[in-house]
Design goal:
- The complex is a heterodimer of chains A (329) and B (326).
- Chain A is mainly alpha-helical.
- Chain A has one domain.
- In chain A, 70% of the residues lie in helices and 4% in strands.
- In chain A, the strands form two sheets. Chain A has a two-stranded antiparallel sheet.
- Chain A is elongated.
- Chain B is an alpha/beta fold and 326 residues long.
- Chain B folds into two domains: 156 residues, Rossmann fold (3-Layer(aba) Sandwich); 75 residues.
- In chain B, the strands form three sheets. Chain B has a six-stranded mixed β-sheet with strand order 6-7-8-3-9-10, sandwiched between helices. In chain B, strands 2-1-4-5 form a four-stranded antiparallel β-sheet. A four-stranded antiparallel β-sheet of chain B has the order 12-13-11-14, covered by helices on one side.
- Chain B is elongated.
- Classes of the chains: A mainly alpha (329), B alpha/beta (326).
- Chains A and B meet through helix 1 and helix 8 of A and helix 2 and helix 3 of B.
Chain lengths: 329, 326
């Protein structure tokens, strides 16, 4: 009887030696400075325009959005977004808190908000998509499965290794983001208050539940939600890699699903049953910030439940197929 | 099907009993039965596409048989793979190892997947396959022969009682093939059962003690290589002039049968140099001197007489009734 630990060690070793994780770190180290620079230019420009008075800047944003509400050319859905956005900005203004106070922590928070739908899932896929299909493409699956180890143990060891790397990737994103953006914006901003708890009803925002949390706490909540999303994406990619023999096909399937999600989020508000698809539910951090959900009726618990079910079903399918299937080539 | 003598032999390490496999509606393996005993080299011979690799995959639990059982050292491979497979070392098709790891890391990887394999054992198998010079290099830099040896090292790690090699001579040069042959004999001499598949008849004939012949998913014969071969009388090739007269003489003898041209199941390489009027007979070789003096007395010129030992190829062609082998 072989216990799980040496098997997990094998899988971790393979992920590291395949240099997948280094590639992910490299992508982060190359891309984050780009975003940091872009953000720097934005803050520079607004500083020139508003003479470093953030209240003026927020006020300007509110007026701009309100003006656009009267335009006929803007679709009704967008107007809803903007109405909600205006109300939130007003709330920040009323409480004398700058939502865009530039700092390493604020940048990280915004970066996480923007990367949860596509960027982080893509990084996860880099590891998850070839975990099983990679062994089939190279034929090493035959060596792996002819050892005296039950198939479910082999698969479980891969899954455990995957979850470890998913956690590591989420952690790396946060840390690298903070470290690099801090060079420019300063390593401060942990205690800046951030408002959360906006309840959206139709096109008004219920402010009764709104409370301020220090930014570090907000960041932790975000990271937790992103970890949850990442785990579900990892489980799905894992299932696809069990089902599909080639790694390329496995990546394409997952990419298509993720990109379909971003497209659907922008146009599916009329098709309400789309809310049961996993890919429109990935933006969990949006609920924290009070961004309206893409489809009406979606809430944080709803989205988490939908994702959890998708994740659970993927695990069941992965194990059922992997332990039964004939390895024909 | 030949009858097997079952008594007086070492115990069977591998028993395959009535195994069938259906994929879709097609039975790709239809009733495969044989056993492999400790210390013997067992050949599994058949043309490409006959079901050799599918059968091997069933032996190591990569494919589940639709019917029948496969037992290794008393354990059912499909029901108790954890117990059964610890006695089996195998290379299925090509020796596919992780090319981004070193040879040593590969062996460590597989060592962690079975009980009782320590560092000393890894060093030992590396020594056995003589890879010690390059074992810490990445496998991507290895030649095919070295990968083959690494594959064998991997298969030997757990001190298996049954070693399964699928077409082991593929891609090896003649020297490598010779080394492999000696190596396999040595392992069998130490009591290991070795199962070797091949589509090369000569290979099996040179290496194996017993053989199962498979074609179109069916085992056509199982038996000792020599036992199977001795069932076929040798061919004797005559080059004579005039052949018409010789034909009468040979045909008159009750122990000699002249084969019609389409009956001759000899390799083209053997018949290539023969004249148009040569004759092929099936006869006991003891009759040759007698027939030669008879011919000479009758004024027939005997240019050449060749005795061709029966080969598995002949046997195979006989069993499969001319199905092509490649």
């Amino acid at each position: 009887m072989i216990n799980l630990l040496p098997l997990v060690r094998n899988e971790c070793l393979k992920i590291i030696k395949k240099k997948r994780f280094y590639v992910i770190l490299l992508i982060l180290v190359v891309l984050v400075p780009m975003f940091t620079y872009a953000q720097m230019r934005i803050s520079e420009r607004s500083r020139e325009k508003f003479n470093s008075d953030w209240r003026l800047e927020i006020q300007q944003q509110i007026t701009d959005n309100q003006n656009s509400l009267s335009s006929d050319r803007i679709p009704e859905e967008w107007k809803t977004y903007r109405r909600i956005f205006v109300q939130q900005l007003q709330y920040y203004l009323d409480h004398n808190v700058n939502p865009n106070e530039p700092s390493g922590v604020t940048f990280t928070r915004e970066f996480l908000d923007n990367s949860v739908n596509l960027f982080i899932p893509l990084l996860i896929m880099a590891v998850a998509s070839d975990l099983v299909s990679g062994e089939r493409t190279t034929g090493t699956i035959k060596m792996l499965l002819t050892r005296p180890v039950r198939r479910w143990k082999v698969l479980l060891s891969k899954l455990v290794a995957l979850l470890m790397f998913v956690s590591l990737i989420v952690l790396s994103v946060v840390v690298i983001c903070y470290l690099i953006s801090g060079l420019v914006f300063g390593y401060t901003g942990f205690n800046v208050p951030v408002f959360t708890g906006f309840q959206i009803n139709g096109d008004t925002v219920d402010m009764s539940g709104v409370h301020a949390v220090p930014q570090w706490k907000y960041l932790l909540m975000q990271a937790g939600l992103i970890w949850f999303v990442s785990v579900v994406v990892a489980l799905l990619a894992f299932m696809v890699s069990v089902l599909v023999r080639s790694t390329a096909a496995s990546i394409v399937v997952m990419m298509a699903a993720l990109i379909a999600g971003t497209i659907l989020s922008n146009m599916a508000s009329a098709w309400t049953s789309a809310k049961y698809l996993f890919m429109v539910n990935l933006g969990l951090t949006g609920y924290l910030a009070g961004t309206p959900a893409p489809i009406e009726g979606m809430t944080l618990p709803f989205s988490m439940a939908v994702l959890a079910i998708w994740g659970l079903v993927s695990i069941i399918i992965s194990f059922a197929v992997f332990t039964k299937r004939d390895i024909l080539n | 099907m030949l009858l097997e003598q079952s008594s007086g032999y070492p115990p069977a390490v591998l028993t395959v009993d009535g195994v069938r496999k259906r994929i879709g509606r097609k039975w790709i393996i239809d009733n495969v039965t044989f056993d492999v005993r400790a210390g013997e080299i067992f050949g599994f011979l058949g043309p490409n596409g006959a079901g050799k690799t599918t059968t091997i995959r069933m032996l190591v639990d990569l494919i589940r048989p639709t019917e029948g059982t496969i037992t290794v050292c008393g354990y059912n491979v499909n029901k108790n793979p954890e117990q059964a497979l610890q006695y089996v070392g195998s290379i299925v098709e090509n020796p596919e190892v992780y090319t981004y790891l070193t040879g040593w890391e590969n062996l460590q990887h597989f060592a962690r997947m079975q009980p009782g394999v320590d560092k000393a054992r890894i060093a030992e198998v590396v020594e056995i396959v003589r890879l010690d010079q390059r074992i810490h290099d990445k496998v991507s830099t290895y030649s095919l022969g070295m990968r083959q040896r690494l594959g064998i090292a991997q298969a030997l790690l757990g001190r298996p009682r049954l070693l399964i090699l699928d077409e082991p001579t593929n891609g090896l040069d003649p020297k490598g093939i010779k080394e492999l042959r000696e190596f396999v004999r040595k392992l069998a001499g130490e009591g290991m059962a070795v199962f070797v598949s091949s589509h090369l008849l000569s290979e099996i004939q040179l290496l194996c003690d017993r053989v199962a012949i498979i074609s179109k998913g069916k085992v056509l014969a199982v038996g000792g290589v020599h036992e199977l071969v001795s069932r076929n009388s040798p061919y004797v090739l005559w080059e004579l002039a005039p052949s018409s007269q010789a034909k009468v003489l040979l045909g008159a003898h009750p122990g000699i049968r002249i084969l019609a041209p389409d009956e001759v199941t000899l390799d083209d390489a053997v018949t290539a140099g023969m004249g148009e009027d040569s004759l092929v007979t099936v006869m006991d070789e003891a009759l040759i001197p007698e027939m030669v003096s008879l011919m000479v007395a009758a004024g027939v010129t005997v240019r050449a007489v060749h005795k061709i030992n029966p080969t598995l190829e002949q046997l195979f062609l006989k069993l499969t009734e001319g199905e092509t082998i490649d």
